[in-house]
Each structure stands twice: as structure tokens, then as C-alpha cells.
Amino acid sequence: MKILVAVKRVIDYNVQIRVKEDGSGIVTDNVKMSTNPPDDNAIEEAVKIKEAGKAKEIVAITIGEEKAQETVRKALAVGADRGIHVKVDNVIEPLAVSKILKKIVEKENPDLVFMGKQAIDDDCNQTGQMLAALLNWPQATFASKIEVKDNVLEVTREIDEGLETIEVNVPAIVTCDLRLNEPRYASLPNIMKAKKKPIEQLNASDLGVDINPRIEQIKVEEPPKRKAGIKVASVEELVQKLKNEAKVI
Amino acid sequence: MSREVMEYDVVIVGGGPSGLSTAIKLKQLNPDINVCLLEKASEIGAHILSGNVFETRALDELIPNWKELDAPIKTKVTKEKFLFLGKQKSLSWPTWLLPKVQQNHNNYIISLANLCRWLAEKAEGLGVEIFPGFPASEVLYNDDGSVKGIATQDMGIDKEGNKKDTYEPGMELHAKVTVFAEGCRGHLGKELIKKFELDKGKNPQQYGIGFKEIWEIDEKNHTEGLVMHTAGWPLDNNTYGGSFMYHAENKQVFLGYVIGLDYQNPHLSPFDEFQRFKTHPDIKKIIEGGKRITYGARALIEGGIQSLPQMFMPGALLVGCDAGTLNMPKIKGSHTAMKSGMIAAETIYEHLTKNLNLSTYEQKFKESWVYKELHEARNVKPSFSWGLILGILFTGIDQILFRGKLPFTLKHKHADHEALKPADKMPKIDYPKPDNVITFDKTSSVYLTGTIHDDNQPVHLKLKDPDLPIKYTLEKFDEPAQRYCPAGVYEVQEVNSVQKFVINAQNCIHCKTCDIKEPSQNITWVTPEGGGGPKYGNM
Q1: Of A43, A93, B96, B393, which has the fewest beta carbons less than 10 angstroms from its beta carbon?
Q2: Measured between beta carbons, which residues in chain B are less than 8 angstroms from residue A31?
Q3: Contact indicator for A19, A220 with CB cutoff of 8 Å
Q4: Which CATH number is correct for A2-244, 1.10.1270.20, 1.10.260.40, 3.30.200.100, 3.40.50.620?
Q5: How far is it, in rounded angstroms, from Cα B90 to Cα B231?
Q6: Domain boundaries of chain A, sorted by first residue
């Protein structure tokens, strides 16, 4: 089996996001970037499947600017075999991403495509689903457990009501939840070895895909500041305030 | 599990200005020397914090065409101010009456973190292998006692010291020469200075703690290129310190405060002094209406050449502030750190090709302009042990009339941790509550640093005697760790009427102040798991 894993470079989850003063976006200059956290889970799961002898090759792919390659390098350091970097200069939307991924799937013929359930920068949660639709493949989203059984995957999904277990036929798309596993560290010897693994570079324009944005971003602003709480003297006062001031009961 | 080993010609510990300059210079001298550089931060620049008004002298020598290469050095200093602050009023000191070392008109206002990121790109372009996220946690020695290299930290150890499922052993990096460039109070540098007695016959090292906030301020209050320093309020005459305010590009000001760690009053809280300083009318009027966007703190070297240890030992060199090359009266250490790294690189090159002894580093250093400027600066800091007013008078005579050429050298008599007086002999200080507009508390400040450590790992702030804080330090000094730590790592909590010393190690912003100031030297800072600590942007 061959697994294609899509990884995205995003602002590190520990960094305080700052909105540009003119509201045209967020500040990304000299900000620490990392791999989108659930994408790390996707890579980890692929590596585990390979270690269990159920997959032969793992290919990591990223789409983004020159430095997005770092996320592929990291994937290579934790166990992916080779990488693909599709270069684009601007932010691209999930539809364009899934169209590019479709082209790569057609070229690489993987049996499974793994990715994070959503990216922590735009929180879209669309790419996996759109790719499944474009390829007409089954999809298992929000996976917190994956079992590989011959040509079927048994996937446990995190849903609002609890856990749902489904079976999907291979080939399939799986989007991964943070509960799926605990990603391993990239060790220094493996990072050194990963520098020698190949990364194929492609330009989005060479793939014949329309990546023009469909959405116009009008303004970015910070959420309103939370007001400080107050202490009430009695339950009566609380009920009264909830009724008359907060108007929630 | 045995550790993997890699051999390099040169291994450099630390990706600040000194380490990166060493790496670049080595590759310029001979591209075939293989150089590996380790950095404990998650990326180069993320643990760098500095004012910074940058003197380009060392960079002009290292990368003469830095302007064409688009170095992040853009804002030329256009105007300078020096204020003596009283509680409400201030006195402006004419710039022409400032000693030459404190004049900045050929310098630039920069973010040192961004300069380091740029230097790292240049280094990688020359073939230096840079590995961020890997702290060097251990020095390795050969049988003859010389330095063999370093080992990186094990990953995936839990609080109790057991291996987790994700355990990854550290790696040994062996080198012909290992360069320690950890910055002020590097924890391996400290071990080496002790082991090889590099500080024998030198004065005790002197330190300060520096705070920095970046503010985005109202356009009408912003003067790009303005450099302003203050002395005086809120510190008393016996406490060494002062502020800086640099008007950078994009309506930002870099606002900071430095306090000598030789302060005597255990009730003093450097963090709160900095916060209080911002309420002075002359400061408040500039930042009012603006927004604080980031915060950080870091210890710095103040000892100068009297305290500079021997910088070579068998198999290794110390560069930058791991030794202590900062020029205190100039309030600058980046150019001297870089130059010390470049001299180290030349020494290593000759050591590898002509088999010259590493001790030639000292000779070369003494012949360089760094030594000359540190020599001229040597008497300023110790003169302030007589208090602010006498210190200023002496500095005027020493720096303006004699240009640092007085025929004697003042000594630093005590180490900073010996300076504290008992709590009951010193006045308590009543700091105003933060208003969350101009002044803030530690929690909301640390939040801005993006600091994180996995909480299931061994505490990286080690107590030699775990009972000492409550049994002795609390009673005698009112446990000053609660106040000198700029990140609120240390707390004394009362649980069921029993007092407990709590270490919130996950908040640590790697400033090293506790390791320096703890009166019994009971706290030792060691490296946490790689990538931990702050994630500074353009600090």
C-alpha cells in the first residue's frame, strides 16, 4: 500500500496571532511557523502503518511558498520516504488545494490519502472532503482510530454525539483528529538523514489547475476583548442579572 | 540505548550573533571545514532578545555588502536623548555632553532576532548545518580531559524521569573544536569556566536583567530613528539601571529596562520597577494610546574585561557573552559578540590547518578593537557601586576627559548573589497594581512571549537543596525568586498552613536570572526539552 500525506505550514500554535493594523490580514513576518498539528498526526499514523508492515511507501506533500518545504523535511525526518513540494506564492483556498492534490493522486496512485482534519490557520475543514468528491473516493473524517484490514479501513470518528465507527473501501481519504496518536519527535540523526531524502518540486501553474481565489477577504479584525467578570452577592442577584442584563434566561 | 555519534570539524552551541558569526567566518576561510550549529530554540531568533541599537563595525568586516544583501538593518539613528528622571519631572542631558561611547549617530535600530535569522540564512547558504530545537545538554570530554564535543538532550522523558513512548535518546556530536556561544550565563559555559578554572584571578562576573516590550504607538508620538535613554527614577541612588526607548520602523517602539543584578534590597522586583517606570509622565505620554504587542526578558553581562574569563581551553572556545564581551557603557554587545566569534573562527582555522594552539585566541583577541573598546569601558560599571551620582561624575571624568585611559582599573568586589541584604533590614516596596493599559502583570506578559514547555518533563530548574527556599531563603530574604524571576516561575504557596516552594517551570523564558541571583546559588538552570521556551518574533 502507498500512502500520500498532505501537510501544511501554518503559524505555530503557541504564537500570539496579531492582526495587521490596516485589517488586511495577520502578521506573518518573522513569526514562528510549524507543521499544522493534526497533519503531524496524519504523518505519524502513516508511519505506524508502514512500521506494522501494511504500507510500503509514504509520500509527503505540501503546497505553499518556498519555505513550506520545511514541513515536508520534517515529515521525512519522522518516517516519510520522499516528498513533493508544489510551489504557490499566495494563500490558496481549499478548493484549489484539493484540485492540486487530485492531480498528484492521479500521478502517484496512492491507496490512501491522509491529512489533518483542518488547518489551524483558516480552520476551513474542507480540503479532505472536497478531494474525496473530486476523486469520487470514500472519506473518513475526524479519525481518532484507524485499523487497516486488507482492502478496507475501519475508522473511528470523533463526532458530536460521541464516537462513530465506519468502514471505508480503499482507496480512501482520511482526515485525522488530534486524538489519533502522539506524534514522535524528529530526532537529530533522522533530521540529518532526512536532508538527503528527495523532494520533488513542482509549480502549481505546470499542473494546469485553476488556483484563482473564489473568495474575497474584506477585513480581518481581532475578536472583541472579554469584559472582566463581576461578583454578585446572592443567587437572587445572579438570576436577576442573567434575566435583565445578560438576557439569557 | 547507546547514542548515535556524528563527527564534525567544528560544533557550535548557540545560534546568536557570536555563534553565527563564528560559523560564517569559518566557511569564508575554508568552505571544506564542516560546521554544525545547534540552537535550543524552536527556530533561530526565537530566544534572542536585545534592545537593539546596532553598531555595524563587525558586520562590515564579516559581510561588507550587507546592504545589498538586504540585511534587516534599516532604521538609522537620527536623534538622541538622555533624560534623568525624577518622580514627576525630568532633566534632559545634552547629547554633546554624553561620553562618546554613548553616542549613536552612525548606528541602527534593529531587531537582533531578525538579524540572527538573516545571518542563519547566510550561514546555511555557505553550507553550515543548523539544527534548531536541539539543546546541547552535556559536555563530552576526551580521556586527556580536553573537550570532545557535546551531547544533545534526550527527548520524551516524563516528570519522574521515566522514558515515555516517544523517547528519543540524545545524540553525541564530536568535534575537533567545540565553540560555546550560549549567551549570558550559558549553562555549559558555566560548567567549563568552573572545570577549567577559566575565571581564576578575574573579578566575579556582573550581570543585569533586561526587559523589553514592543509597542505600536500613535503616529504623532513616533519619531523614527529616535534613541532615548533614561537614568534615575524609579530606582534609588544605590541601584544600577536605566531604560531605553528606540523608535523603530512601522510605528513601533522598543521599550526596555535594565537593572544590575547587584541590587541589595530583596524586596525589589525588577519586573515591577520596569512597569512602574512606564507611568512616568515623560514615558506615558509617548506610549499612551498605543498597544503593547510583545514582552520578554533576558539576563546580560555587565562585568567587562575585569570579569572576562580565559576564553580558550583544550578542545573548545568561549565566544560572545558565554564569556562576557558586552560593552556596558555602550550598552551594546552584538558587535563585540560577533567580532569575538570571527576571531574564534580565525583561530580555529589556523588550528586546523597549521596546528597552532587554541591559546592564540587570547592573543588575537587582545590585539583586536574589541579588547581596546572593552579596556576603555572598564571603569564605568564598577564606579556605579558608589551610587548613581558619584558614578556619573566619575564616568564623566573617565570617559569624556580621559577617554577610558585612566591608569588604574576599578574592581568588581562581589558576585551578584552576595549582594542581597536581609529582608528585615531593607524597606518593603509598595508597587502599584497594573492598570492593564500601560502596566501589566507577569501572567499576561508571559502570555505574549509564546512560551511553552511540555509539562510532562523533568523540571529544568534544579534545586541543590529542595528545603532551602522555605527553611532559609524565605525567612532571611523573603524568597526573592518570587520577585526577580520576570516570568512568575517561582511562588511560595501556603497549603494547609504549610508553606511550599512552587516552580512553574513551564513558564520559564530562559533568562537565567535565578541561576545568577539566588543568594545561596541553590538554583541551577539546565536545558529543558528542545524547542521549549519563548517564541520571540522580532525581539
Answers
A1: B96
A2: 537
A3: yes
A4: 3.40.50.620
A5: 10
A6: 2-244
Which of B43, B131, B166 is opposite residue A188, by nearest beta carbon? B131
pLDDT tens-place string over residues B124-156: 999 999 999 999 999 999 999 999 999 999 999
- Contact check, Cβ <8 Å, B450/A32: yes
To test the contact with chain A by mutation, choose from B1, B11, B42 the residue with the greatest count of A C-beta atoms within 10 A, namely B42
- Is residue B117 within 8 Å of residue B44, measured between CB atoms? yes
Nearest CA to B184 out of B449, B512, B481, B507 is that of B512
Place of cell 577549567: B196
Q: Which member of B129, B168, B251 has the closest CB to residue A185?
A: B168
Per-residue model confidence as pLDDT tens digits over B359-375: 999 999 999 999 999 99
Q: What is the pTM of this model?
A: 0.93
B1 band by pLDDT with thresholds 50, 70 and 90: low
CA angle centred on B505, ends A18 and B473, rounded to 5°: 130
Mutation site, B34, B116, B166, B218, interface A, largest A CB count within 10 A: B166
- Mean pLDDT, residues A179-198: 93
Residues 6 or more apart whose Cβ sits within 8 Å of residue B146: B313, B314, B315, B316
Any A CB within 8 A of B438 CB: no
Please write the tens of the pLDDT for every residue from B280-338. Answer: 999 999 999 999 999 999 999 999 999 999 999 999 999 999 999 999 989 999 999 99
Q: How many Å is the Cα radius of gyration of chain B?
A: 22
Q: Is B506's Cβ below 8 Å from some Cβ in A?
A: no
Torsional sign, CA B508, B511, B515, B517: negative
Cβ of residue B435 closer than 8 Å to a chain A Cβ = no
CA distances from A243 to A8, A236, A249 (A): 46, 11, 5
Nearest residue, CB atoms, B6 vs list A31, A183, A192: A192
Domain boundaries defined on chain B: 5-66+113-202+309-377
Q: What are phi and psi of B125, to 5 degrees?
A: -60, -30
Alpha carbon A155 to its chain centroid, in Å, reads 18
Q: Which CATH superfamily is domain B5-66+113-202+309-377 in?
A: FAD/NAD(P)-binding domain (3.50.50.60)
Q: How far apart are CA B351 and CA B330, in angstroms?
A: 33
Is the Cβ of B293 closer than 8 Å to some Cβ of chain A?
yes
Please list every residue in chain A whose beta carbon sits closer than 8 Å to the beta carbon of residue B129: 192, 195
Specify the pLDDT at position B103: 83
| DSSP helix/strand/coil, A185 | coil
Chain A residue with CA closest to B538: the answer is A30
Q: Are B515 and B182 spatial neighbours (Cβ–Cβ below 8 Å)?
A: no
What residue has cell string 461578583?
A: A231
CA distance B468 to B462: 12
Q: Mean of the pLDDT values across residues A64-93?
A: 95
Which of B34, B216, B535, B538 to mutate against chain A (most A CBs within 10 Å)? B535
Could you tell me if A225 lies within 8 Å of chain B, comparing CB atoms?
no
Q: Which of A218-226's residues contact partners 24+ apart within 8 Å by CB, and which partners? A: A219/A23, A219/A24, A220/A19, A220/A20, A220/A23, A220/A24, A220/A25, A220/A26, A221/A19, A221/A23, A222/A19
Nearest by CB to A32, which of B43, B111, B447?
Answer: B43
Cβ neighbours of B263 (radius 10 Å): 25
